[in-house]
Write a structure and sequence with these properties.
There is one protein chain. About 35% of the residues are buried. This protein has about 375 residues and is α/β, with parallel strands linked by helices. Helices cover about 50% and strands about 10% of the residues. The radius of gyration is 26 Å and the shape is elongated. The longest helix has about 40 residues, at about 265-305. The chain has two domains: about 5-255, TIM Barrel, CATH 3.20.20.70; about 265-365, Chorismate mutase (Chorismate Mutase Domain, subunit A, Up-down Bundle), CATH 1.20.59. It contains 13 helices and eight strands. Helix 1 runs parallel beside helix 2 (about 65-80). The chain has helices spanning about 30-40, 65-80, 90-100, 110, 115-125, 140-155, 180-190, 200-205, 210-220, 245-255, 265-305, 315-330, 335-365, and strands at about 15-20, 45-50, 80-85, 105, 130-135, 160-165, 195, 225. The protein starts with 16 loop residues before the first strand and ends with a helix. Strands 1-2-3-4-5-6-7-8 form an eight-stranded parallel barrel, surrounded by five helices. The structure holds phosphoenolpyruvate and manganese (II) ion. Manganese (II) ion (MN) binds near residues 227 and 238.
Amino acid sequence: MDITPLNKWIPNLKKPLVIAGPCSAETREQCLSIAKEIVKNEDVRIFRAGIWKPRTRPGSFEGVGEEGLSWLDDVKKETGLLTSCEVATAKHAELALKSGIDILWIGARTSANPFAVQEIADFLKGTKVPVLIKNPINADLALWIGAIERIASAGITKLGAIHRGFSTHETTMYRNRPLWRIPIELKSRLPGLPVICDPSHIAGKRDLIQKVSQKAMDVDFDGLMIETHCNPDEAWSDAKQQVTPESLKEILGSISVRTEYSHDRNFGQELDDLRDKIDRIDNDLLESLQERMKIVDSIGKAKIKSNITALQIHRMDELMNKRMQIAEALGLNPQYIKEIYDVIHDHSVKKQTEMMNETKTNKED
Ligand code: PEP
Ligand code: MN
């Protein structure tokens, strides 16, 4: 995939790239007053505002529509911030481009729909506009990658992904569960693709935004999109998760930004030494697992001889309890050890079941 690095299209890029602004554009004055406050903070480079709002149920505020596009143009003229808005149809994209919106994003409900993404992609062919693609609301990495590929196939190279969490029917501390391994896997599947975290839609409430933003920096994301409003409690959408420009400044000031590499030689040497140790320990672990598997094999053979089932629930409970007690005594989190042993034990049972099936097939032959 042809991806233009972020620093080639964002002048004087500093990490993290910050996108801020209200969930929805409400009035011209609201957009301008927010933009004038956030631009005082030089970390903020892009203004966001939803013009068309995909609402879960009809009857709630569905965005000001086309009219709001000129407000974003005023924001750009008066503050110099780049502007961005969500597009959900080819028509939205056409209107946004006509009004000079700098960056488009595709929302979570739209990226879950390949027809809609393809229609937008077809319209964007021949343009060079940057496009950010939010993860689909459901935890489906392939669908997210598919949406990115559709936009990339239209010749768009200024691309980025936005991680906004995944919807769930369970009650959790988040509005949308972050499931970090999904965006992390995306980073490894599409190296070079900028990934931006949207802690506002993950958190759903303002208290959690700092923590989620820090986590995003810890896993080396490139940017943050944070919903910001001068009067969050009165916002026409997503009131609970929006922060004031002052708290945005506090949040950004409080997060430690880590980079993947350091130019400090001593640090590099120390890290190399520690990694050597980890490599040796992992080698030992793998050799032990190999050794363990051989024994599982011998037990399998013995069980076949005596016609005993592969899974013996008492033995499994006993094994798990013992391992967890040892883990606790060693200061390891028993839950962590339980998860590892669940996988190890599952594979042992699977191996023995396969052996038993083979014996049966051979007998039938
Ligand atoms: C938004 O950014 O305001 C929005 C609607 O987000 P999402 O598509 O992530 O729900
Ligand atoms: Mn929102």
